[in-house]
Amino acid sequence: MSETTVTTPEPAPIGGGAPILSVRDLHVRFPSEAGSVHAVRGMDFDLHPGQVLGIVGESGSGKSVTSMAIMGLLPDTARVEGEILLDGQPILGLSDEAMSRHRGNTISMIFQDPLSSLTPVLSVGQQITDAIGNHNPKMTKAQREERAVELLQKVGIPAAEERLKNFPHEFSGGMRQRVMIAMAMANNPRVIICDEPTTALDVTVQAQVLELLKLAQEETGAAIIMITHDLGVVAGLADELVVMYAGKPVERGSTQQVFSNPSMPYTMGLLAAVPRLDVSAEHALATIPGRPPNPTQPYAGCPFAARCPLATEACEQAEPGMQQISRGHAAACIRLDVARHADAREIYGVEKLAPSAMELTPRQQRPEVLRAENITRHFELRSRLFKRHLGTVRAVDGVSFDLREAECFSIVGESGSGKSTTLLEIMELDPAEGTDLVLNGRTITGSRKKHRAPLEMRADLQMVFQDPTGALSPRQTVYELLAEPMEAQGWKSEDIRARVFELLQTVGLQPDHVDRFPNAFSGGQRQRIGIARALALDPKLLVLDEPVSALDVSIQAGVINLLQRLKSDLGLSYLMVAHDLSVVRHISDRIAVMYLGRFVEIGEVEEIYERPRHPYTQALLSAIPVPDPEVEAGRKHILLEGDLPSPTAVPEGCSFRPRCPLYRLLPEGQQSVCESVQPALEPLILSEPDAGDHGVACHYPRDLREMN
Amino acid sequence: MAINPLNAAQHTQAANETGGGEPSGEIRPMGKKRLILKRFMRRKPAVFGVFLLVLLGAFALFGHHLTPWHYQEQDFVNLGAGPSSEHWLGTNSAGVDMVALLAQATRTSLMIGLIVGILTPVISLVMGCAMAYFGGWVERLGMWTLEALIMFPQIVLIGIVMTGRDGGPVTLAFIMVMFGWMASARLIRGMALSYVNRDFIKASRFMGVHPLKIVWRHLAPNLSSIAIINATTAIWGAILAEISLSYLGIGVTVPETSLGLLIEQSRTYVFSQPWMFWAPVAVFGFIVISLMLINDGLRDALDPESKAGGKATT
Amino acid sequence: MLKFIALRFVRYSIMTFAVTTIAYLMAVSFFNPVTQLMDLTGGSLDPEVNRENVEETLRRYELDPDQNMFQRYGVWLSGVITEGHWGYSPNGATVNDAFGDRVWISVRLTLAAMILSTVIGIALGVYAASRQYRWGDRTTTWYSYFTMIVPTPVAFLLVQRGAIWVNEQAGEQIFYVTGFRSIGVEGTWNQFVDMLAHYAVPTLAMTIFGWAAMQISQRQYLLDYVNADFVRTARATGLTRKQAIRKHALRVSFVPTAQSIAFSIPALLTGTFFAEIIFNWDGIGAYTIRALHQHDVNATVAVTFYGCIVFAIGALIADIFTSIIDPRVRL
Fold first, then answer.
1. Per-residue pLDDT tens digits for B147-167
2. Which ranges does the record mark as transmembrane (chain C) (predicted)?
3. B touches which chains (3+ CB pairs under 8 A)?
């Protein structure tokens, strides 16, 4: 391995003075059966007091391992080398006991999954007071409890005193993450490390938590390290940025510099691979071919060379060190002279989207693929013992829409809104009474007979699942997986064989993959297998349930591009559910926003993204951070209060009212209708003549930005 | 997608492992049974386990040819005699040749093991899948039966049948089956329930695959590996149970013989005539060792997450 | 909570009734006490006279072999329900009398061994988990698997023979390998020493071959949690790894352990077949086996009923225990 030129980062623009945390040439190796895994290979950064440092990278880039190394939480088997200075004092190599005096005191951490990160059998109060008591043994129990209540109030947990007695399972995901933040703030640490703190949360809750982190920083004056794969999250929060690839930083600079002038081809590819929420899609997404190098095998050259469109022979000779670009901005690339002026789309060969003839045909003239009338799914809640009726959950409550050929219709909403249930209701092809499904001209009238739908209808309708691993039977080879739908339709085996190889080609897999089991493939490849299987019968309509949310950014782009190409080439229609509104904007033609089992807004994607009228839609859209610091700085976030209400306790009148920012702004006389009448989905054209078929379920549809 | 040069080494390795190397386009999917067999054969201890078990089986079937004596025949000249050229493993206190006895006892014990080892997993698989798949009253009835059977003091019931009817080894084996399926049926039901909600089962359902075929294709293979692994434990569990029951006098009884009965008969001669006690104990030990080795090998060969399956490349 | 217990109670009552009924009907139809008794008493007498005598005896004890099983079931059930009378054994003893003392003997035999094997099992499980894959873990876990595949009678026999060997080497009776007391020992201290000498061997045998299941499960439960996210969180608040495991992982891992302990408490009352027979303690286990051999219908059914009740109590205690220590479970 070549020697890396270590350039000391220049003083940060804010904070100044001595860094509170310095990491120098950090290396982490894990022994494994396949050899030593070199997970971090020379991490370097300085963190100044009050600064927010974003560390961005894909899974396996070593960003989490770095944070665990700083906290001293790596397993004993890990070999850590380098230097970590906390307030000038070396902390690397300290014993677990010595390190435990720093953890939670001068340096604390917030983890990704709030569900599993709290001990289930201890009350929340106990866990917070312990966090305080670990470093303040002299404090009395009453003082600790007082401090715990104060912390919970700060992080916005209502009725803090009573909630101390509650156990973690009695809190929602967002509330648990607030508890985690309270624990991290408990002893006014100098540094808070946040490891993907919002990845497991809904966008509306994510916005609340990010806001809270800003508050925590102001409150404690701590420096924050924000580790994330989501470029949007850091754009609005971080001052400085480090992009990691294959265990080392490949680009660093101020957030502004990195976003506006990405110089390392990897960073460029990453930024061009993310669909944008704030602009309509004209180009396909950049895809970075291949996958990151195997960390068990040492390599001589630039680790990105094999995937880099600009790589030359020289790139394979020696690993490049950091090269200065401008003050505070550096990248590890020997072709910076070319790269820093190049256009990412150009070097990655991204094409402009070219809609097919069908896609350019006006919607009304295209054949209808699916019409759903009044989809309803109610669950009866009964007590476990006596089957007493406790209430009805209206998971889906009278949802109607239609879908045309070569059209992508997406349903968005928070988890628990009923969007996935809607998909399953359609896939079952056995709807409840009062529901009609018209699929490609064939009608199913709802009866809930529990019988199987005709095979021909099945052939027209196929599904791609969120988790590509769970959707493929681990005991079937790729051949068996792809052959299954055709066998179910009674195809001849020669036809199946030919079709399997055709499908592999369509989705970009190699023919010699047929006799492998799914576990031999990467996540992106597995999703391609899932798509190939869904395409096997030449369906008219693909139902996509969060098709890319389990994938890394650069892999995700490849799958999105594939879906888009299939739509144009094959004239496929998509019915999609996704929580990532940027992805939705990129590939959808029409969307519907769902809240507590009902559509609250529906229409053309451009119309809704540019002129959202329902307050919920506006809040959702504004909650998504945009991966562009300049745009992000100018955006106003509409924060929703609280979580989605329990589906058994849906409020009277408009179900969104308790969280509605508009309702609170309305004069009292206008509020009463929200309290008593559930608004129906009505065309907006009545009040706004150029609204097309945009529909809203709100008594006072308007642009919130224009108010106050 | 381009082939990543860094993975090229892996690629050729994977191709060699699966016996591939044919040019693309003419590749035939490789049989899964062959793959599992291959993985199993790669584990030397497991292969040794099979060898040992075959040896024991041969001894059970043909062991009586090793000695001129019959297992119900007494040699009054040699009562409780030690190993000699005439009686390789000596005789018991009644003067019966130990080799003849041991061959017969091994046969009885292995037969009980096989009956239980085959029937128990099958019944638990069927019951478990049925309860999970059909749900409703089938499940409720099944769970009640299951709980009642678990509640039943089993030794008492086995005792009622075995002492009441002087049942032989076959009866014993069938009662063991009757009382042996509940625990693993409950386990399989739980797993089947979790599989029923898995995406790949949903996927097949949405493809229009027939429900019975889904059970056969997806549910059963995923559960049958548990059943197969359980089978090996069920075999030695049954042999172990036979020893215990025969010791209590409610298992195999004279004139039949079994490992348990031999141990029971020799209980007062552990020190004075140790061959009587240790010979059946040793045979039992060999059976258990061979089954454990096989169990280990199967577990690895049937595990789809196993590292031995070759890797695909980009 | 009360509702839950009441509901469970009803469910278990029904099941107990069904199981006991089946056991009774099966025992009546399978058992043949006439031949059994004739073998015991017969020989010199004329077989016909003997048979008549035996049948007469049985009739006296409400065990009439000529009645069909449903008639006898009716008589028996009304006896149980109206007077709590569980019937006679063929030798004329009442089942009720035979039970009380023997339950106490079984409890005394198993109590010490059960406490010891539970405590040692949990301790070694925790020890093994904290030293996963190291020498200490491998040895303890390997030993546990070994004891689980050794047939219990073989194991107990070897311990018993070992104790005899020690006695022979020492040249005096240090341990008693059968029975639970010597006759005619005077004085509190002497009685105490005598008791120890009787208890030592069976308790040792049941303990060293008894902790395996507890050790293996406790090890696994703890291993499931030592690397849990919440342990990492606890360390991040300033605990060392050891402290975090002790305070958080161990606590969570005790939930299933407590459940299995609760389940095994009532098993004290049913005794153990092998220990009682090999070490010759006349408890419920030995009584059961004798009843089976003597084709004693009433005793067999009583034991069955007793086993069901004990099982039900165990299951109920386990549920209640779990709901107390695990806040996620509410009855």
1. 888 888 888 888 888 887 766
2. 12-31, 109-130, 142-159, 196-214, 261-281, 301-325
3. A, C
**Chain A residues in contact with B223 (beta carbon < 8 A):** none
C79-92 tens-digit pLDDT: 888 877 788 887 77
pLDDT tens per residue across span C132-157: 888 888 899 899 988 888 888 889 98
Per-residue confidence (pLDDT) for residue B313, from 0 to 100: 36
Who among B1, B10, B206 is closest to A427 (CB)? Answer: B206
Cβ of A180 within 8 Å of Cβ of C233? The answer is: yes
- Buried/exposed code over A20-40 (b: 16+ C-beta within 10 A; e: otherwise): bbbbbebbbbbeeeeeebbbb
pLDDT at A156 over 80: yes
* Distance in angstroms (rounded) separating the CA atoms of residues A391 and A399: 21
Report yes or no: A171 at the C interface, CB cutoff 8 Å. no
One CATH from 3.40.470.10, 1.10.3720.10, 3.40.50.1580, 1.10.10.10 for B57-302: 1.10.3720.10
ipTM (interface pTM): 0.82
Is residue A520 one of the residues assigned to a domain?
A: no
CB atoms within 10 A of CB B28: 11
Residues within 8 A of B (CB atoms), A 429-458 only: 452-453, 455, 458
The number of residues making up chain C comes to: 331
Q: Strand, coil or helix: what is A547?
A: coil
Q: Is residue A645 very low, low, confident or very high in pLDDT (cuts 50, 70, 90)?
A: confident
> Is residue B7 over pLDDT 70?
no
Q: Which DSSP string corresponds to C120-173?
A: HHHHHHHHHHHTTTSHHHHHHHHHHHHHHHS-HHHHHHHHHHHHHHHHHHHTS-
Domain coordinates of chain C in residue numbers? 103-293
Task: State which residues form the domain around A306.
Answer: 264-347
Provide the whole-model pTM.
Answer: 0.81
The 10s digit of each residue's pLDDT in B127-139 is 888 888 777 788 8
A240-245, strands of its sheet edge to edge? A107-110, A191-195, A223-228, A52-56, A240-245, A248-254, A329-331, A323-326
pLDDT of C31 above 80: yes
> Residue A373: phi, psi to the nearest 5?
-115, 115
What is the Cα–Cα distance from A576 to A567, expressed in whole angstroms? Answer: 13
CB-based contact B29 A533, cutoff 8 Å: no
Q: Which residues pair with A326 in a beta bridge?
A: A329
List of chain A residues whose C-beta atoms are within 8 Å of the C-beta of residue C328: 120-121, 167, 169
The CATH number for C103-293, chosen from 1.10.3720.10, 2.60.40.10, 3.30.70.380, 1.20.1250.20, is: 1.10.3720.10
Averaged pLDDT, A164-190: 89
Q: C292 vs B163: CB contact, 8 Å cut-off?
A: yes
**Greater confidence, B40 or A228?**
A228
In this complex, do B311 and A475 lie within 8 Å of one another by their Cβ atoms? no
